[in-house]
Amino acid sequence: MSNLFSLIDELQSPANEIRSRAEKLLQDTLITGHPDDTLSGIVEVAATHQVEHVRSFALVLIRRLAFQRPDQSNPTQELWADILRHDTRQKISSVLINQLGTEQAQTVRNKLADTLAELARDSLSRGQSWNELASALFQCVANDQPFIRESAWRVWSGVPVMLMDMPIDQLKQLFTQGLQDADINVRLTALKAFSSTLIDSDRSTRIQLSPILVIAFELLPPLATAGDFDSLRPALLTFTSLASSHPVLFEAHVNSILNFAGEIAQTDNCPFEVRQPALELLLSLAEGISATCRRNSRFSEIFIRICLKWLSVRSSDEDWETTEDLDDTPEEEEPAQVGEEYIDRLSTALGSKAVLPPAFALIPSMISSQNWQERLGGLMAIASIGEGSYKGLHSELAKVMSLLEPAFSDAHPRVRHGACHAIGQLCTDFAEILQENFYDPILKALANLLQDPSSRVQAHASAALVNFFDAPPEVEVFEPYLDGLIERLLHLLASSSKRYVQEQSITTIATIADAAEDKFGKYYSTVMPLLINVLGANLSPEFRMMKGKAMECATLISLAVGRETFLPDANKLAELLAVIQNQVTESDDPQISYLISAWARIAGVMGGDFAPYLPSVMPPLLVAAQIKPELQVADDDEIDKDAHPELEWMRMADQNVGIQTSALEDKNTAMETLVIYATELKEHFGPYAIQALEIALPSLKFYFHDGVREAASHLVPQTAEISKLTNQANEEIIDTTFANVVEAISDEVDPTFLGVLVNCFYKLVSTFGLPNLKEPIAETFTKAIEQQLRDLHEKRTNRIQKFGKHTSGGDVDHEDLEMVLEEEEAENGALDEISACLKILDSQSGLLVGIGTVAQMEIGPEWEDEE
User: Name one GO cellular component term (predicted).
Assistant: First the structure.
C-alpha cells in the first residue's frame, strides 16, 4: 500500500518527467499485472487516506482507470471495469457507497458523487441496475446532515436516468422536497438534478414535471435579496442550461424571468460574474423561443438597454496606446466585450424589427455624448448589431454613416479607433452595398487615419481597409484612391516603431493587391523588392509573423499582377521560401501556415512549372492535413475559457468538447492547398495523389470544421481523376473511395453538404466508370439515399404542419419562416443532385418517383407573394 501511496503522489507531481514515469509504472506494472489489486487499493486510498487532496485524486483516478482499455489504441478491447473480478467490483461498489455516508470533506464528497454517477451511468448504459446505490441515495436524501443530502442530489444530477422509473407523483414530490430544503446547497444541487432530469427525459415527462418550475424559480429572489451571489450564479447557470435545451418550458414564464434577470443584469453592486449569466439566461430564451420574445415588446428594450450600458464600461488605461499586445483587454472592460457579443446574438435571434427601434432610440445620444466611453459604446453597438439586423438596416445605411462620420475626427483616440472598428465591421456585414454606395467617405476617412498620431488607430484604420477591399466596388471606382493609400501604407511599413503597425500594413497591401489585380502592376516594382528584402533579412524570432505576412503579401501580389510580371522574381521568391521552410524547427512557428498558403499561390501562377518544388513543399503540407486537433472533455463546471483561450467549446454526444482552433485552421488551410495543387498541377501531382486521397476520405466526416469537409469533397474526385490519369487507380483504391463516400452520404444530416457529397459520388462514377462500381457498394448507396429521402419526407411533413400557409392558418413567425425556407432551398439542391446521380446509375429507378414526391412537399411556393 505504501508503494501505491507514493505512486499516487507522483501522479500529481507538477514535474512532467516524474508524472510520466508514474503513469508508465501504473500502466505497465501495476495495472497490467494486478488490475484487481490495484483498483481495490486505490479505492482504499480514496476512503481512508488522511490527506484530503489525495482522497480526491484517488477518486478521479478510479474514474479514469475504470473506463480505460489495457491497450488504448484498440477500441474493441474490453475496459478495465469489464475485466475486474466480480468480488473486486462488489468491493469497489461497497466501499464507495459506504464512503457516501462517512466522508466529511466537501471537495472529496463532490469527487465521490461524480465518480458514483459515472460508474452508475456506465452500468445503466449496459442494462445493469445498481440497486445498492439507488437505495443508498434515497437514504442519503432523508439524512439529517445537509452535506449528505446534497451528495445524493449531486449523484442524481450526474445520472438522472436513475430517477426516471419513479412514478411521476413521487418524482414531483421528491423534487419539491429537494427544491424546498432548508439548506441552500441542497436546494442548488436539487435544482441541478431537476434540470438534468428535464433535459434528459421524454416530452411527456417534461410536461408533467414542468409545474415544478415555479417552485424552482422561487429559489432565485431570496438569493438576490440576501446578496448571496455565490449561490445565485450557479442557479442562473443551471436555468440557462435548461433554457438552452428546452426553451419551450419557459414560454409561460418569460415575463417574470425578464423582470428578475433584467433587474440583476443592470444592478451595479452585483458582481459581473452574476450579471452576465442573468443576461445569458434571457439570451437563451431569445435564441430558443424567439417568437415569444419578439411578441414581448419589453424584452428587446430591456435587453438592449443593458447591453448598451455594458458597452460603455471602458477603462482609462494608459497602457492602451503603448501596449504591443493588442488582444490584451483590461479586466474591467469585460462587460463591454460581453455586451458586443450579446447584442450581436440578440439581433441574430430576434431580427431587425425587434432590435433596431430600441437600439437606435439610444445609440444617437450615446454617440453625441460628452463622455468618450459612451461615444465608443455607441460605435461598438453599431458594429455589433449589423449582421443580425441586415434586413432592416441595409436601407438605413446613409443614416448610419452620418452617425459614424464625426467619430473619425473625434478628439479621443479610442473613439477614432472605435470608428475604424465600426466601419470595418459594416464593410463585412453589408459587403458590396456599403462599398458601392459610400466608398468616397470611407476611403478618405481611413486614408486620413493612416496618418493618425496614435499607432493603435493607424493599425485599425489599416485593418478596416482590409474589410473594405475584401468586397470592393469595381476597380475603376477605387483606382483613384490607390496612390494615396499605397504611399501611406508603405510609409507606415518603413517608419512605424510598432511591429503590429508594420505587419498590418503588409496585410492591407496584400488585400488591396488582390482586389486591384492587374491595376496593382504600377506598384509592383516598388513593393515586391521591399517584401523580398523582408523575407531575406536575418531577423530575430519576434519578426516571424511579419515574415509570414510578407510571404502572404508577395504571393497575393503575384496572383494579382499575373505570370508575366511575376516570373522574373518567381525563382528568387521560391528560393527564399525554401530557405525559411528549412529553418522552421518549432511546431508552433507562425510561418508554417503562411508557407503552406504561399506555396499554393505560387503554384497557381506557375502551373506545371511548379512541379520541381513539390518534393520540398509536400511533406509538411501532408503533415498539416493530417492534424488531429487536441480535444479536451470537461463537465459544465470545469470549462475555463480564460485558462484555455485557444480552445473552442462545443457540445457533442452529450459532452463538452474543447477543440484547439489554431490546429483546425491549419488543417483547413492544408486541405485547401492540396485542392489547389491537384487542380493546377494535374498529372504532375501524381506522386502524391494516393496519399492525398487517403487523407481526404476520412476528412469527409471531419465534423469539427466545415471548411475541411468542403475541401475534402473537392479533393476526393480530383485525386481520383489524377490516380486514373497516372494509372494508380487499382481495384482496392476504387472500392475504398466509393465506400467511404457512400458512408459519408449515409451519415450526413446537413442538406447542403448532402448535395455536395452526392455530387462527389457522381464525379467518381464519371471518373472510374459505372462498370467499376461494384454491386454491393451500389446497393449501399441506394439504401443510403432511400433513408435520406425518408428523413426528408418526415421533416417536410412536420414542416407543412407547422409552417404551411393553409395548415397553420398563416399564423407563423416570419423570422422563423425565413430560416425554414432557406433550409428548404438547400434540400431542393440536394434532391437535384440525388436525381442527377440516380439517372446515371439507373434511369428507371423507383427512387426517382420518390424524389419527385418529396420535392413537391414544399411550403415555399405558398409564401411566394409574402414579404
Answer: nucleus
Domain layout of the chain by residue ranges: 1-163, 476-625
Q: How many CB atoms lie within 10 A of CB 843?
A: 8
Spatial CB neighbours of 450, under 8 Å, sequence gap ≥ 6: 458, 461, 462, 485, 488, 489, 492
**Which strands make up the sheet holding 647-652, listed edge to edge?**
631-634, 655-660, 647-652
Confidence of residue 30 (pLDDT cuts 50, 70, 90): low
Rounded to an integer, what distance in angstroms lies between the CA atom of residue 749 and that of residue 751? 6
Q: Is CATH 1.10.3470 the right assignment for the domain spanning 476-625?
A: no
Q: How far apart are CA 807 and CA 232, in angstroms?
A: 44
Q: What is the DSSP string of 280-306?
A: HHHHHHHHHSHHHHHH-HHHHHHHHHH
Contact between residue 385 and residue 396 where contact means Cβ atoms under 8 Å apart:
no
Q: Are 851 and 793 in contact (CB under 8 A)?
A: no
Q: Which residue has the cell 460628452?
A: 370
Rounded to 5 degrees, φ, ψ at 649 are: -95, 135
pLDDT, tens digit, for every residue of 579-634?
998 888 887 889 988 998 899 999 989 888 889 989 989 998 999 999 887 766 65
Secondary structure class of 655 (helix, strand, coil) = strand
Task: State pLDDT tens for residues 698-748.
Answer: 999 998 899 999 999 999 999 999 999 999 999 999 999 999 999 999 999
599's grid cell: 506555396
Superfamily classification of domain 1-163: Leucine-rich Repeat Variant (1.25.10.10)
Gap between the Cα atoms of 135 and 144, Å rounded: 17
Strands 631-634 and 647-652: unpaired
Q: Poorest-confidence range of 87-91, 630-634, 656-660, 726-730? A: 630-634
End-to-end CA distance of the chain: 76
Q: How far is CA 793 from each of CA 61, 797, 798, rounded to the nearest angstrom?
A: 48, 6, 9
| Separation between Cα atoms, residue 576 and residue 578, nearest integer Å | 5
Are 424 and 467 contacting, i.e. CB atoms less than 8 angstroms apart?
A: yes
Spatial neighbors of 691 by CB under 8 A, at least 6 apart, are: 622
Contacts of 732 by beta carbon, 8 Å cutoff, 6+ apart: none
Residue partners of 110: CB distance under 8 A and separation at least 6: 151, 154
653: DSSP letter = T
**C-alpha angle 855/856/859, rounded to 5°?**
100
pTM for the complete prediction? Answer: 0.78
Q: How far is CA 539 from CA 543, 546, 583, in A?
A: 6, 10, 12
Phi, psi of 85 (to 5 degrees): -65, 155
Q: Which three cell numbers stand for residue 859?
A: 411550403
Backbone angles phi, psi at 469, to 5 degrees: -85, -5
What's at 445, amino acid-wise? A
Could you report the per-residue pLDDT of 152-162, keeping only the tens digit for each?
999 999 999 99
668 neighbors 704 (Cβ within 8 angstroms): no
For 53-78, what is the mean pLDDT? 74
Q: What's the CA gap between 489 and 511, in Å, rounded?
A: 12
Strands 655-660 and 631-634, sheet pairing: antiparallel
Distance CA 644, CA 628 (A): 18
All three cell numbers of 362, joined, read 439610444
Buried b (16+ CB within 10 A) or exposed e, 502-524: bbbbbbbbbbbbbbbeebbbebb
Contacts of 271 (CB under 8 A, 6+ apart): 229
- With beta carbons less than 8 A apart as the criterion, state whether 651 and 642 touch: no
The reply to whether 476-625 shares the fold of 1-163 is yes
Residue labelled with grid coordinates 510578407: 550
Q: Are 356 and 392 in contact (CB under 8 A)?
A: yes
Which grid coordinates belong to 773?
462500381
Q: What is the DSSP letter of 218?
A: T
Gap between the Cα atoms of 373 and 838, Å rounded: 62
